[in-house]
Amino acid sequence: MPLLTLLAALAPAIAGAEPQIAGEWDTSIGRIRVEAAGELFTGKLVASSGLCRFEEGSEVLKGTLLDDSFAGKLRICLRGKSCKAKEEWASAVFLTSPATLSGAIHVEARGCVAPVGKKGGLALKRASGPPPVAGAPKPPPTGGTDKKGARAKAREILRDGAAYLNEGNFEAARRRFLEAIELDGGIPEAFNGVGVTWRMRNDLNRALEWYKKALLVDPDFGDAYYNMACVYALQGAKEMALRYLQIAALNGYASGEGIDADPDLESLRADPAYHALVRAKM
Fold first, then answer.
1. Mean pLDDT for the chain?
2. Would you say residue 13 has pLDDT above 90?
3. HSE, side-chain direction, 13 A CA sphere, residue 56
4. Up-side HSE of residue 220: CA atoms within 13 Å toward CB?
5. Cα–Cα distance between 245 and 280 in angstroms, integer?
6. Which of 101, 182, 183, 217 could form a disulfide with 154 if both were Cys (CB 3.0 to 4.6 A apart)?
7. DSSP assignment, residue 263?
8. d(CA 44, CA 31)
9. Quick one: pLDDT band at residue 112, thresholds 50, 70, 90?
């Protein structure tokens, strides 16, 4: 996807427009209708995909909004040879945009996995048209050889950008990352790389914008959660920082030792929630 087209699609969320998550969303478990009751948002399953044996009409999502971040619980079915639980209300954090809720969940039950990305990533898409039919075949991928070639070239450029970044040449790195995005808008590392170049120039707002873009491109891209937590901490937005730090730590994007040694997180160190999180990871 061309860069300008992608940025236009993401602009409403990135520009700071108030997120509106009420409505219907398509998820791996089916279509969910989200409604607001004061500050609390709840979602009920209105059409099951058949993936989880939840009754239609049952509650599967609940949480609150803070700026463009939704934090709460998602009801999800579990599987695994040593899994003793059939389902769980998993902790969830999602970045909101008009068309997508993009984020990750964390499953507490040992030996269990949920039908989400390898690192907990999950995207909810704004519903349009009738609900997907359970068991319907997925459309074949488009692009073929041309798309593969573009991605290979983009990743080659991405490596150049990373090399410039390691050298401290942030402007050259940013140019290369943007070139990679022009070729292939589906590589989260390139968006994250642009964010890092702005972070290194201490332009925290621009850094945050690009970290968010990386997360919207791929909710399973762990670095975005941790990098966003660091920026929010530097900006003094403790609750937002803790939301993203929690999902980063619990899903293995950061160790307790690494978190406790990171100067970007200094503003969180007096918060009991921070100490509980670090102790849990050590």
1. 88
2. no
3. 8
4. 9
5. 13
6. 183
7. G
8. 8
9. very high
Neighbouring C-beta atoms of residue 112, cutoff 10 Å: 21
DSSP codes, 86-134: SEEEEEEEEEE-SSEEEEEEE--STT-B-SS-TTSEEEEEE--SSPPPT
Task: Count CB neighbours of 144 within 10 A.
Answer: 9
Which residues are CB-neighbours of 226 under 8 A, at least 6 positions away?
Answer: 244, 245, 248, 253, 254
Q: What is the pTM of this model?
A: 0.84
- pLDDT of the residue at 195: 98
Can you tell me the distance from the alpha carbon of 204 to that of 221, in angstroms, rounded to the nearest whole number? 20
Q: What are the angstrom distances between the C-alpha of 114 and each of 5, 7, 40, 106? A: 33, 31, 25, 9
Q: Which domains does the chain have, with CATH numbers?
A: 3-126 (2.40.128), 144-281 (1.25.40.10)
Q: Number of helices (H) and strands (E) in the chain: give both, helices first.
A: 9, 8
CA dihedral of residues 219, 225, 228, 233 (deg, nearest 10): 150
- 204 phi and psi, to 5 degrees? -70, -35
pLDDT in tens, 30-73: 999 999 988 999 999 999 999 999 999 999 999 999 999 999 99
CA dist., res. 24 & res. 33, Å (int)? 4
Structure tokens at 180: 């990679």
Q: Is residue 60 helix, strand or coil?
A: strand
Q: How many CA atoms lie within 13 A of 159 on its CB side?
A: 5
